Amino acid sequence: MRTIGFLTKGILFLAIAGAECGSVCAAAAEPAHPGATAQQLSAAVADLVERTLPSVVVIQTAAVRYHRVIDPFLGRGYAVPERLAGQGSGAVLDREGHILTSAHVVQGAQRINVVFNDETVRPAVIRGLDEASDVAVLKLADVKGLDLRPIPLGDSDAIRIGEFVIAIGSPFNLQGSVSFGVLSQKGRSVGVLPYEDFLQTDAAINPGNSGGPLMDIHGRMIGINAVIQTGGPQAQGNIGIGFAVPINFARRVAESIIRTGRYERPWIGIRPMEPREGDAPGLVVGQVFADTPAERGGLRAGDIIMEADGQRIRNIRDLLRVLMRRGVGDTVQLRVRRGSRWVELKLPTERMPDLEPSER
Questions:
Q1: 280-286: long-range contacts (C-beta < 8 A, 24 or more apart)?
Q2: pTM
């Protein structure tokens, strides 16, 4: 944030000048206004929101679901249509008309409209989605006449716990709503997706925020708001615990979807064993699939993966986190315990093949 940076430099300059001129300058100096720093922060956040709102969109979805009803008198069956409407949020990815959002916002939608901050409405189609990561990319049907403003993307690995964050979206149909908080934690798993590495925040996130951006204080998107934790089945509102998909991972998913229409998930070709109570640290390889990077690279069933790319591996989630930070074709380095020996292996990742229905 430039304002804060400038303020910091100004304080340093005054401290040096004060040390040089002594008590005369100290007597002449006027005390800073006690609310000046807070006012600067407030103005900086307002400027950030003003710049970002044109990049944030509302996503309106519609679908028809049919229920079969039996007439009790005639015994005939009828298909009764039920119209389903939904709403979420999204962010402009590029000037070609790609919109980044959550997969659960658009999954099953038969009609999608994207509403911009100036109330302009354009239809869109699903370019691709990945259920496992809850990331989707839409494509506007027509970009003529639109002033598309792609949202700046940040670095979700670099942001630190405790930094200020801002959530923007349309909770409860309230377009362009802004909430402010901190990054509460990183690397969270809450059991709703096969792969989870969520950012946690106390910035208010509610139904309708899904798919919208979580921003850092510099105005860069560092996550896709996706999940909230509530006080129970009867409580739908925010209790200060929300989760976002990290943008570094979401960016790779989106780039793959734009390029191929799907997320090409990297894998090495193993099936780990379920950990048992009392097991030693590490991830035990239960099965090595034929003709995969793991087999060609020398990994064996019974090996215990202790490290991947220098990161300690305690469970499958740790290994997935390392793999998902890689692209297809990148090399992952494993440190493996094989009996009493240590083995170093380098395995290039491949695209995870489509599983047969029996393997799902």
A1: 280/304, 281/306, 281/312, 281/314, 282/306, 282/313, 282/314, 282/337, 283/313, 283/314, 283/315, 283/316, 283/318, 283/319
A2: 0.77
User: Which among 89, 98, 102, 104 is annotated as catalytic?
Assistant: 104
266: nearest Cα among 132, 159, 152: 132
Mean pLDDT check: name the lowest of 13-27, 114-128, 130-144, 224-238.
13-27
pLDDT digits (tens, 9 = 90+) for 243-266: 999 999 999 999 999 999 999 889
The confidence band for 82, taking pLDDT boundaries of 50, 70 and 90, is low
Encoded tokens for 80 = 């009764």
134 counts as catalytic: yes
Domains of the chain are 57-140 (2.40.10.10), 164-260 (2.40.10.10), 266-359 (2.30.42.10)
Verify whether residue 67 is a known catalytic residue: no
Q: Say how many C-beta atoms besides its own lie within 10 A of residue 332's C-beta.
A: 20
Work out the number of other CB atoms within 10 angstroms of the CB of residue 122. Answer: 19
310-347 tens-digit pLDDT? 999 988 888 988 888 888 899 999 999 999 999 999 99
Out of 102, 130, 133, 134, which one is annotated catalytic? 134
Q: Which of 55, 170, 184, 210 is catalytic?
A: 210
| Beta bridge partners of residue 115, listed in sequence order | 58, 121
Name the pairing type of β-strands 283-288 and 111-115.
Answer: unpaired
CA distance 255 to 313: 27
Contact 269, 293 (CB under 8 A): yes
Residue 18 has pLDDT above 50, yes or no: no
